[in-house]
Amino acid sequence: MGWQLFKRQVIIMVVLFENINKNKKGNKKFILKILDNSNGNYVVIQQVFACFPDGGEVLQSEKKENFASLADLREGEYTRTRQGKLFIRSDFWTAV
Any bridge partners for residue 35, and if so which? Predict the structure, then answer.
């Protein structure tokens, strides 16, 4: 029985933008996260949860998109959503 060494790669993801919104009925929650994975690429995560009166939540859908540059990030399909438009209009772009 021998030892095997495994090389691990640690990727640190920094949250650049996060927006959490519940609908008026309170039965759905929408989350948009924009992450920098510290190697020049960006990840957009969109999630929809069903929310229940007892406080429970169930993930209904999740969509992840990867972008190779800030220019690509600015043109992503997610920018057509309400939360995506909030990110495009955010102060993030003035700091870049």
Answer: 15, 43
Q: Are 47 and 28 in contact (CB under 8 A)?
A: no
Closest CA to 64 of 47, 84, 39, 45: 45
For residue 29, give Cα distances in angstroms to 20, 45, 53, 72: 7, 14, 13, 27
Q: For 5-54, how does the pLDDT look when each residue is reduced to its tens digit (9 = 90+)?
A: 667 766 778 999 999 999 999 999 999 999 999 888 999 999 999 999 99
What domains, with CATH codes, occur in the chain? Answer: 14-95 (3.10.450)
| DSSP conformational letter for 25 | T
Sequence-distant (≥ 6) Cβ neighbours of residue 6 within 8 angstroms: none
Asked if the model's pLDDT at residue 56 lies above 70, the reply is yes
Q: How far is CA 29 from the centre of its chain?
A: 14
